[in-house]
Structures are given as C-alpha cells and as structure tokens.
Amino acid sequence: MTVSRLGFGSWAVAGTGWRFGWGPTDDAESVATIRHAVESGVNWIDTAAVYGLGHAEEIVGKAVAGLPEADRPLLFTKAGLVWDDTDPQAPPRRCMRPASVRREVEDSLRRLGVERIDLYQVHWPDTGTPIATAGSAAGGVSPDATPLEEYWQVMADLKAEGKVRAIGLSNHSVEQLDAAERVAHVDAIQPPFSAVHRSAAPEIAWARAHGTGVIAYSPLVSGLLTGTFSADRVAALPADDWRRSHPDFTSGLAANLRVADALRPIAARHGASVAEVALAWVLAWPGITGAIVGARRPAQVDGWIGASALTLTPADLDEIAAAAARTGSGPVRP
Questions:
Q1: Axis-axis angle for helices 27-39, 55-65 (nearest 10)
Q2: Cα of 201 vs its chain's centroid, Å
Q3: CA distance 293 to 282
Q4: Which domains, ranges and CATH numbers included, belong to the chain?
Q5: Which of 260, 266, 265 minimizes the C-alpha distance to 310?
Q6: Which terminus of the chain is more solvent-facing, meaning fewer CB atoms within 10 Å of its CB: N or C?
C-alpha cells in the first residue's frame, strides 16, 4: 500500500455517550471533514471499533460510501477493546480472545461498509483488564488474558482468509514485536510519537529494521501542539471531554504549551502553522511512514495538511530539540 504522509484520525469525531469522547460532535460536519481531508490528498483513514463504541466506524463508512472506487481512501481500524452495551460509560476492557476478534472484524466490516479492511491492528496488548485512562490501562494482567502468540496467529489467519489486507500492532513493546514477528510478519505498528512523547523511538527503530510501516498517533498531543491551546481553553473544554482529566492537560499542561510556543518562530519563518511544524518534526523521523491527525471541522484539516510538504532545517531541528529536552523522555532530534 502506498500511503500519504498524513492520515485522518477519527477518534475525535466519535461522538458523546461513552467514556473517552471529545465532547459533542455533528455527524454531518464529521462526514464533510473526512471528505475534505480526502479531497486535500489524504488517502487513508484510521479508526477503531471502540471509538464511540462503533460510531466512528459508522461515520467513516458514511463518508466513504458515496466516493468513486478510485477516490476511496484506505481504511485502517483496530480490535481488542471491548465494551458493555448496557453500560457505555464503563471503561472498555482489553480482550483479544480469538472468538472476540472474529466477532469484532465482522462488526467492523459491516459498520465500514466494505468487504475487506486494509489494515487491521491490535489496539493494545491483551491484559484482560479495563482501560484506566485514555492512552493507558490498569496495571496487572488477568489470568484470562490471551497470549500474544495466540492472538497474533488469529490476525495472521484473518489476513490469509482475505478479511484484511495487512495486520499491525499498536502500543506494543520491542519485546512483544519480536514475539509477534516469530509468528507472522508485522506489517505496521502504531505508536504514540510527538515532540512531547518520544519514548516509542525504540519501536520505530525496530520497525525500520524489519521492513515494517510506522503510523504515529497523537503527533499533536491531542491538539496541544496546534498552537491554539491555552490554559483557559482547557478549562473551557466540555465536561465530557476526556482531555479535561488527562495528565497532558493537567499536571503536564504548562510544559506542553511551552513546547508549542517554541514552534511558533519556526512556523513564522516557514509561513506555516504551528501544527504543521509539529507534524513535520514527526515525519522527519527515520522509519516514520505517516502520522495520524484528527479534525472535527474542514478548516482544521487546512491547518495541518501542508505538513507533508514542509522540510525543517537543521537549525529548526536544533530549536525543537532544545524545547523537547525539557519535557518527556526519549531522543529529541531525528
């Protein structure tokens, strides 16, 4: 698959009524935003069954349904987080039992309205435990957890059967990637990676060495590196926006905003947005295939779409490295 450097992420258009929503959304506007991204050159969409408890996949399905086959973007989705329909506010649970995965893939195919998923990913390693906060899970592993070798074989079987075109792992360590590779080739990985969160650098290096694609998620730290956030804006987020209680937006907010501020003079020199500079930094990293970027309105897409054409200079990278060194962990320069 040949993919554009930027892909559309659908978590933010998943709607309300579940534990990790981003506040109210308008479905018609979400469809228009996805189509605008595709018209602007984005040729893949990343989603997950758990986003909106199926709603994001339905929105993506609506957005691509009317497009000519030649213009239809590639569709990437994920399995492994299951929820209780009777209690949508309960935290989803990590589960990769073979029967559950097979049920999930059929549900995703139906919601997306396609016969084959282009990239099917394991959202998190199976621990059998609930997600505690967005982007993490409760500690410990349940005795009911499915071994990685077992669930990765199921993913390989789905590929062999033609249900999916490629298979990937999200949020898995180098050791887990090694174990999976012994079962079947890891076509792609999806780690979090940004100028703030850089700890996935070893996984990216692993992928580069194994001929594995890398699509980075949260390259803008859920909006914090767009240059449009402030403490006042965080305080004004809707009550049901998961970001209100996340450490990136509470205890880490001041440090994260300082990184965004450091990108402003670089953006001014290039006639670009702060978001485009933040994304160009991620795309400059060796081994990165593309980055997932969300939007809820077409104008937001216009604010980051130019990143794939932006080349940062050595001086730019030095400035960003100096700012990044003051927060997070991991290497600060490509």
A1: 50
A2: 16
A3: 12
A4: 6-223+285-310 (3.20.20.100)
A5: 266
A6: N
Tokens representing 114 are: 């396609």
- Residue position matching structure tokens 């081994």: 287
Q: H helices within 66-196, ranges in order?
A: 98-112, 148-161, 174-181
**Residue of 51, 120, 151, 217 with catalytic role:** 51
51 among known catalytic residues: yes
How far apart are alpha carbons 334 and 258 in whole angstroms? 20
Q: What are 259's two structure tokens?
A: 């990184």
The four Cα atoms 75, 298, 273, 217 give a dihedral, to 10 degrees, of -30
C-alpha distance from residue 11 to each of 47, 51, 182, 207, 303 (Å)? 7, 6, 31, 24, 18
Q: Tokens 């702060």 belong to which residue?
A: 274
Residue 16, classified by CB atoms within 10 Å of its CB into exposed (0-12), middle (13-18) or buried (19+), is middle
How many CB atoms within 10 Å of residue 40? 16
pTM for the model stands at 0.96
User: How confident is the model over 51-77, as pLDDT tens digits?
Assistant: 999 999 999 999 999 898 889 999 999
pLDDT digits (tens, 9 = 90+) for 140-184: 788 889 999 999 999 999 999 999 999 999 999 999 999 999 999
Per-residue model confidence (pLDDT) at position 253? 96
Q: What distance in Å separates the CA atoms of residue 100 and residue 114, rounded to the nearest whole number?
A: 20
Segment 29-54, tens digit of pLDDT = 999 999 999 999 999 999 999 999 99
The encoded tokens of residue 331 equal 């290497």
